[in-house]
Amino acid sequence: MSQPPTKSGTIPFKIPKYSVPCVTYYKIFGGLACGAPPVVIVHGSPGAGHEYLLSFADLWTRHGLPVVFYDQIGCGSSTRLPQTAGDGEFWRESLFIDELDNLLDHLDLRGGFHLLGQSWGGMLVGAYAARRPRGLRRVVIASGLASWELSIKGIEMRTGEMDEATREVPRRCEEEGDLDSEAYKEAVMAFSKRFVCRDDPLPELLLPALKNLGEDTNVYGTMIGPSIHIPTGSLLGWTSIPALSQITAPTLVYNGEYDTSHDIAQVPYFEGIPKVRWVTFANAGHMCHVEREVREKVLKTVGEFLRQGGE
After folding, report:
1. Quick check: is 168 in a domain?
2. How many CB atoms lie within 10 A of CB 28?
3. How much is the pTM?
4. How far is CA 287 from the centre of its chain?
5. Entry's SUPFAM superfamilies (predicted)?
6. Would 48 be classed as within a structural domain?
């Protein structure tokens, strides 16, 4: 992705029962009036910001689909809310659903749009699509998770694929509460290099996300916990599975062969969504949209699927 955005700005976002003025930052590639349904990109983590997904801006140059990125509330260039740290009742799915609705209405996209969500963004997009929002044409759930319980099981299964020494270090450190040791950091890094992003060195597009998460742990820490290996946050118990049959939009589900979003967390999407296609990219991790070996395959697969949605 090298082209500059066509437009960027902020959208006022009023949070129910919360008096602080807030804004959602957005960035658009292409012309919303071109006649093709725009693709709204929903980022993951939560708290990573939109930049690590900018490879999808190529959907405009290659497929003529305008692309809308935004930073979810609490991170990136949107309003930060440090006073809500640890407030699991505040940081819930409903907050992000309200923000997405607000974005779509402000940009006047109800005439037709696609949704692509990655990781936590995929979880959110799946839940949102089940509400059958007006104007939704097609859905892409990229390395998403049908439930948090299956996410935890998948992480445990991936951890079991590591050698015994690497598995033992984080387990011991977590039991002892020693998450700042070099041994723990090295073990987590080894896991990440195998299952999160398999490129070495890391693609530059991922660096802003790491910066965002390092500078402000509020949203991630509250919703996830200290790490994906210690899931103690407000997403515990979250599931989209009962509502998946309500998704009427054609849906593409994809993950990587070595993805932290394990196949077991994709099966409910495949079994529950009426019009669904599932693709697993070989030799890919959780960030396959930026990994050198598979990036082009991901963009081609997503672009061709969305173009089937018509003008």
Report:
1. no
2. 20
3. 0.96
4. 10
5. alpha/beta-Hydrolases
6. yes
